[in-house]
Amino acid sequence: MPRPRVLSGVQPTGALHLGNWLGAIRNWVDLQNTHDTYVCVVDLHAITVPHDPAKLAEHSLGTAALYLACGMDPERCAIFIQSQVAAHSELCWLLNCVTPLNWLERMIQFKEKAVKQGDNVSVGLLDYPVLMAADILLYDADLVPVGEDQKQHLELARDIAQQRINARFGSEDHPVLKVPQPMILKEGARVMSLTDGRSKMSKSDPNEGSRITLLDPPELITKKIKRAKTDPERGLEFGNPERPETDNLLSLYAILSGKGREQAAAECADMGWGQFKPLLAEATVAALEPIQARYHLLMEDRKELEQVLKHGRNKAESVANATLSRVRDALGFATPG
Ligand code: TYM
Questions:
Q1: Contact 193, 247 (CB under 8 A)
Q2: What is the residue with the minimal CA distance to atom 36 of ligand 1?
Q3: Is 11 touching ligand 1 by the criterion CB < 6 Å?
Q4: Helix boundaries (H) for the chain
Q5: How many CB atoms lie within 10 A of CB 112?
Q6: Which is the catalytic residue, given 55, 113, 151, 229?
Q7: Could you tell me if the CB of 146 is within 6 A of ligand 1?
Q8: Closest CA to 151 of 111, 184, 115, 188
């Protein structure tokens, strides 16, 4: 029996933060033991908003290094850069031609990002979820481990595969594409901003104090946590809708300290903020320290990183090209001689 397949990715837009790690990458690290795992650095997605060409390649390599530093193992998974596997762009075009425009116009993330871009909204930003569908569908992925904010994009990928490709160009016995399932963790799937417990931690928040990046040095982590928004009440608890910041900080503590929710809730039930914040800072620094050490080693030896990416690309290409041929055939294109 072949192992079920997993595909996921993160955009190389600036330093990854706790949300990316706890909501997505942490899950990949476990899945690579039981699943045939493919993870890419989605650099084509990163140019859907204005970007700096002088930094794109460096950020892509840095993101791949962080995958490794967080525990992805090139022996057990393929790590590659999306733009280096041309099938992603090509399948995106084929899917574009069968995806209704109004499916894209109602995507929440498009609406949110489009507001921020004003008059400068690119076609690529609207098309972002179709490229994401291509990423997933190319690998016949069974599971797509992501944070909660990607749920709607996953549903779109399923609808494109099922309704727009399989129903039109395949048959029940011979579907053209596999319909993937999202995999969203119960804990960490929605890490919130440190400055507003009602909005998610995000790379695009102009306030750097709102997020902890995986590469923040200890003093900065401590400072950001010290300044994190709280409320006047004493004692920490989960699930009080009036106290979203408390829920978020306690959730972070439960995961990062490794203590789990029950133990963290019991330990912090009567704590004041002055006692809790240093504890959270300590747990965060300790959790990130080994990741940072591995990251810096990897970035010093680019050769190893480049080898990993080359190996990953070769493995990804063979799967992606086979799926692309299947879709080309189903859509009736002439077979290359
Ligand atoms: P990106 O780079 O915005 O996010 C990468 C992953 O991190 C998760 N995430 C979070 N999880 C919990 N709390 C948060 N505050 C938080 N912020 C981000 C995201 O859900 C995501 O899993 N569109 C994708 C990238 C992508 C992709 C794909 C993912 C492109 N193609 C194919 C899976 C499969 C994204 O959100 O990137």
A1: no
A2: 150
A3: yes
A4: 18-20, 26-31, 43-46, 53-69, 87-96, 101-105, 108-117, 123-137, 151-159, 167-169, 218-227, 244-256, 260-268, 273-300, 302-331
A5: 12
A6: 113
A7: yes
A8: 184
Mutate which of 7, 21, 149 for ligand 1? The one with the most ligand atoms within 8 Å of its CB, which is 149
Query: pLDDT tens across 225-262, in order?
Result: 999 999 999 999 999 999 999 999 999 999 999 999 99
Q: What whole-number distance in Å separates Cα of residue 265 and Cα of residue 115?
A: 38
Which atom of ligand 1 lies nearest, measured to the CA of 141? Answer: 34
Cα–Cα distances in Å, from 16 out to 25, 80, 84, 211, 321? 10, 17, 21, 9, 30
Residue 281: CB within 6 Å of ligand 1? no
Q: What is the largest CA-CA distance in the chain?
A: 73
Active site residue 277: no
- Position 314 confidence tier, pLDDT thresholds 50, 70, 90: very high
Candidate of 20, 138, 190 to mutate for ligand 1, largest count of ligand atoms within 8 Å of Cβ = 20
**Ligand 1 contact via 27 beta carbon (within 6 Å):** no
- The DSSP-derived string for 131-197 is HHHHHHHTTT-SEEE--GGGHHHHHHHHHIIIIIIIHHHS-SSS-SS---EEE--SSSTTPBPSS-T
Active-site residue among 55, 151, 203, 259? Answer: 203
Digit-coded pLDDT (tens) for 141-174: 999 999 999 999 999 999 999 999 999 999 989 9
Active site residue 229: no
pLDDT above 90: residue 1: no
Residue 301 phi/psi, 5° resolution? -110, 85
